[in-house]
Amino acid sequence: MADLIHKIKKYLTEPLLPPLSFLFSRTCLGGIHYSAKEKTIDAHFILPLSAGLLEPSFDKKNIINGRALEGKLREGVHRLGAADRNVLLLIPEACLKVFLLAFDNLPSSIKERENLIRWRLNKLLPLQPSDLRMSYDVMTSEGGAKIILVLARAAVIQEYESLLARLDLKVKVIGLPSLALMNFLKQEPTKNALVANIEADSISLLAVAEGRAALYRFKPFLQDATRGALSAQKWEQVVTEVQNTIQFMEDREQKKIGAVWVRSALPIGEGDGLAILKEKLSVPVKALDFSLPRPLSGEDKQILSPLVGQMI
Description:
Blueprint: H1 4-13, E1 20-24, E2 28-35, E3 40-48, H2 66-80, E4 86-90, E5 97-103, H3 110-124, E6 132-141, E7 144-153, H4 154-165, E8 170-175, H5 177-181, E9 193-198, E10 202-209, E11 212-220, H6 231-252, E12 259-264, H7 273-280, E13 285-287, H8 298-309
Parallel strand pairs: 1-4, 4-8, 9-12, 12-13
Antiparallel strand pairs: 1-2, 2-3, 5-7, 6-7, 9-10, 10-11
């Protein structure tokens, strides 16, 4: 297996990315072929996944039906019609653990810095699997430093890499949807904002303060996603989690959230979540949006927005 740490580090720090990218979730598989020069999507696809093909997890087997999932991926690659074989891969949030760690200062020595990070990690995750891998990125400011720490199981990552390798695709960069969505906030006039990434089975919240990641939270829906939870129950939990995160940022971080940006990958039949959030929250609520020469439908735009976000 290629170096996982290098792949995630590259995702966090380097802007030049493969034009071919794929997004996996429990309920769908998506992909785009993006032309950076023309700033356009040359081709894209979204394919639904039936229950039992993919079960995202940090510490359990993810790909349950490899043959069926390979067939879906092969169909998607055919739709893209691209000769590129190097790809960027966004895997489900449940496959990774993300921590934002605050430090007054960090050692200049990389070895001492990593020892300090591992010391903090041992307190957060006392029982660690033998194949645990970590990658991190440092964000400095006048008040100290924060580190985005990403953890993954090598065995889990290898499942996805092996699947793509069967189609002669090589994973060059690995990331997760919520961090990719941060790029949409570059033009956000409000310095402090919250990104709500809503999937069929979970919600991820990323608070951004002064243009930097400040807080990350991942919550599976209380209901069993495989049995189709009622949309009202899902949105009730979304509202509660968003309200709690906004309150936490104000109380603990002394940062007032100025806007909530929402990316919803729920099917249209799951209800108008944006309207519900606008009604329940006291801050402006906006849908993640973008314009490209090749237009996408509203639902496609929402599902594929993490792939576009990591390209722009």
